[in-house]
TrEMBL record:
InterPro entries: DUF7642. Residues 90-187 form the DUF7642 domain. The keyword Transmembrane helix applies. The chain crosses the membrane at residues 59-82. This is DUF7642 domain-containing protein. Keywords: Membrane, Transmembrane, Transmembrane helix.
Amino acid sequence: MGSGDEVIEIDSLETGLLTPTASTGQAEAEAEAEDETVLYTASFEETELNYVKYQTAQWVIYSLLLILAWGIGFFMLLYLPIRRYIVRNDIRSTKLYLTPNAIVYKVRRPVPFPCFGLLKKEKHVLLPSVADIVIEQGYLQSLFGVYSLRIENVGVRRPASDDVQIQGVANPNAFRKAVLTRLADMRTEAFSRQESTVEDVPNLKISHSPSAWISPSKYVRQDLVPQSGDLVLLQKLEELGISVKRLQTLIEEQQSQTSEPVD
């Protein structure tokens, strides 16, 4: 009886320890889904088999070439089953989707020796920095119906190796169309915001003269200039009045001198 009770207690303990972990992971996934609104999701399921075949054919070709060169190709052929396992898990874990502001690329692939864990990669490419979505297909890819997507960045031209490259997308044209449509909508929204901002600015135009768009500080300065000019004009008028009075005084004195009788 005692051993049975101990087993029950261990099971309940394991259940209690695992339940918060599962709920925590689910909560994190839900929080991540709520934070990012997905507009379009690329699919990889349709091309999984062809992608694995393409990677296998590529690996075999490299192995045969290295057999002729140094003999290392024998070890590569022995490694082929592990390689196929890595490629299959790679394409199954790849996620590529479009959000209102970015292109999100996530992948979890095993390392070259899967016993050492997984390699996680996540990249967010902001839509304003996207110049174009390039669809590529080489000769070997065309034999298996596999396409590659390359996201080009805006700005100084960089080597193609610096761009984000994703292989095995089922319908690359649809994803490219979704990204370009979202970019066009963002440009339209930005243009409409600029127009609304211009319309909200108060109309400061008073006359058709160029001086109608002068800032208020300059209007104050212009108001001060006529006031100082009026003061100068008043001073000139006062001086002119004083001069006229003096002239009248001189004329009266001369008239009085001429009107006196001569002895």
